Amino acid sequence: MGESERTERPIVIKALHKSFGDQTVLNGIDLAVEQGETLAILGRSGTGKSVLLKLIIGLQEPDSGSIRVHGQEITGLALNELNEVRKKVGFLFQYAALYDSLTVEENVAFPLKRHAALSAEEQKERVRELLSSVGMEQHLEKMPSKISGGMQKRVGLARALALEPDVLLFDEPTAGLDPITAREIGDLILRLQEQRKRACIMVTHDIPNAKTVSDRLALMDGGDILAEGTFKDLQESRNEFVAQFLRNAF
Amino acid sequence: MDTSAFSAAWMGLSGRLKSHLPATKSLLVTFFEWFGDLGIFCGRLARSTFVPPYEARELVRQLDEIGTKSLPLVALAGAATGAVLALELRDSLTVFGAKALLPAVIIFSIVKESGPIITGLVVSGRVAAGIGAELGSMKVTEQIDAIEVSAVDPYKFLAATRVLACVLMLPLLTLAADFCGILVGWVTDTLMQPISFRLFLESGLKSVNFNDFLPPTFKTAVFGLIIGLVGCFQGMRTQGGTEGVGRSATNSVVLCSLFIILADVLLVRLILVFFP
Q: Shortest Cα distance from B119 to chain A (angstroms)?
């Protein structure tokens, strides 16, 4: 990573627009995340939170606007250049998206095999280390269908961390989990963030978890960011929608 | 018919045509869109297939999945074809006083057409549906997105390996179908009128040369290409949850069977031109 990239904020989004047909999903979003900061993006279903994450990782193309990851503009990049950026970004999918045909160990080894210059033994060791960091070292040989939703999220997190990314994107990390498991996942994210300060964006509906894990929150509505700040800032907001959203969460 | 009746009938017909126009237009657009998307898919797949690094381990896994696991089904279909041909042709050839030609007709028929087309259709039923459903399910559960996010090209990892495996395995599976068909054709024949396998083969293969055997066997590589391409294409463009997965699997089989039959007509004509 060059000196200029290091000094740049890890994620800077400017005037981002995205529509699907007649439906405007993102209407000129501006957002930035500092190194070591966790930003939680809240909002009602269908407000474009997950789309925003997919735009940041290059799974979708924006209609207009700029997305810079470590100073590099990712819109309009060629696939091989985009893949270089993707290696620095970890992504945890809403339902973990583990590969059905691979074991837990093979799922975590998938990016390592292709992008890390490790011997077979080193790779095995790294996979064990990653699974151990999420408390899944006992389940190496299991298939994803044989483990619970919470365990799948942990394995998904280990896979997202495999290439030691500087940026982590979480798409609803606690969706579909019981409150205790959701809390465990939240604690795990917090612990990983304390160990190594990454820039994180977490899209979630789980406000208690967002309050615990994130440094800053942004509330999206109608394709825009309605309010942004610490949890206290949002609580003190005079915006009726923000107040109603937080009130309904507790 | 007087003029007013004709005019009324014409008005009615043109009104009906007009009412069907939007539906016809949309159908045509969908038809051309499908082929356009397939063209783009093929272009991206071709780039991914020939540019290193190669997914050798996944290719080997697919060779096993598509080839080895289709073998029992293909062998059974080939055997059944041999038995049916022996049973049906015996009576027909007896009527024309050409019973002695039975081994030659069975072998000719299996090697030149029945073996390849049966293999293509049976494998399209098993493999195209499997690929369509598997990739469709991976698409709707974001597994394909997860591959992309891992900086791995899903066209290379998922599609290229499957298409290559289909192209490589179809000729081999055809050989297995041909062998089983000929073997069971002989067994059926010998049960009605004993004849040694050696004599059956000798009289059957007397007038068969490599031009009768190699082009029809290798044309199944094209069937493999169709199965791999259509299955992967349908799977990777799946939308709409589990219902979409079912639709992808069904469409894969239907389209593959149709394209294999159409390709067969074209290939048979080409073989007749280039290998007379």
A: 27
Whether the upstream peptide bond of residue B53 has omega within 30° of 0, thus cis, is yes
* ipTM score assigned to the predicted complex: 0.90
The average confidence (pLDDT) of chain A is: 90
How far is Cα of residue B211 from the mean position of the Cα atoms in its chain?
22
Please enumerate residues of B whose Cβ is less than 8 A from a Cβ of A. 53, 137-138, 141-143, 145-153
Q: Among positive and negative, which fits the CA dihedral B58, B63, B64, B65? A: positive
pLDDT tens digits for range B184-208: 999 999 998 888 999 999 988 887 8
CB contact under 8 A, B150 and A99: no
Q: What is the pLDDT of residues B87-115, one digit of tens each?
A: 988 888 888 888 888 899 999 999 999 99
For residues B219 and B170, give the distance between their C-alpha atoms in angstroms, rounded to a whole number: 9
In the sheet where A23-33 sits, what is the strand order?
A23-33, A11-20, A64-69, A72-73
CB contact under 8 A, A100 and B138: yes
Distance from CA of A246 to the nearest CA of B (A): 30
Chain B nearest-CA residue for A160: B150
The mean per-residue pLDDT over the stretch B54-71 comes to 93
Q: Judge: B149–A98 Cβ closer than 8 Å, yes or no.
A: no
DSSP state of A166: S
Distances (CA, A) of B64 to B161, B162, B234, B252: 12, 11, 22, 21
What digits encode the pLDDT tens for the residues B125-136? 999 999 999 999
